[in-house]
User: What shape does this take?
Amino acid sequence: MANPCLEGKKRRCGRPTPHDTEQLDQYLLEIAAGLFVQHGYAGTSVDQIARKASASKQTLYRRYSSKEELFKAVITNLTASVLRTIEETPLHNPLQELRHVMCLLLDLTLQPEALGTYRILISDAYRYPSLIAHATSTIGAPIHNCVVRLLKAAEAAGQIEPGNADNTTANLLCGLITGQPLEDALFGLKPLECCVERHAYFERGWTLFLRAVGGKQDMCAPTPADTASLAYKKNATP
Assistant: This one.
């Protein structure tokens, strides 16, 4: 993707439209994300990002006061669509909606950009504790709170047995669905690349979860959206 500001060079200069500004913002975040993933947080500079983006440092600093703020924006942007979907999840059928959220979470966890961010946080965040704090507050906490919210709604609706709607169950569920694939991916393996394999893995984990909490399979049949989210968008094979 080229710098949108360099397209149509014959156009007269003027105040950018909101669309132009949004397009440039997204472009800069994508360039920064790629360099952070490639070189790590410590190994990436604002100069590098500006050169790669064919932009000035002033363009970046007008948006982000420091490299740290830029990286935080990359983290937020990476997960924005998934978090927006999670935050807007209604409570019409809590168990089915929890299933859908877990599908989204597995898909997000194994995206290359997300894995690169995980590696950066693991390797560099001990030197930059504010990065971990940001990731926790903008990604970890909203996802965890949504899972707990849906567990409580499922318990209130009689979809799972009483006593299972708490923080521990939420942590165990997330670990069951994403833990091993994430660990394998961080070690450089390529787990669940095939969408059929990914679907089978998710179904096995979800079935085990339902048995543990006394859930009812017929109350959370998969939806077309679930199937779509389990198809690895970039690398899945039929």
About this structure: The first helix runs from residue 18 to 39. Confidence is low (pLDDT under 50) at residues 8-13, 231-238.
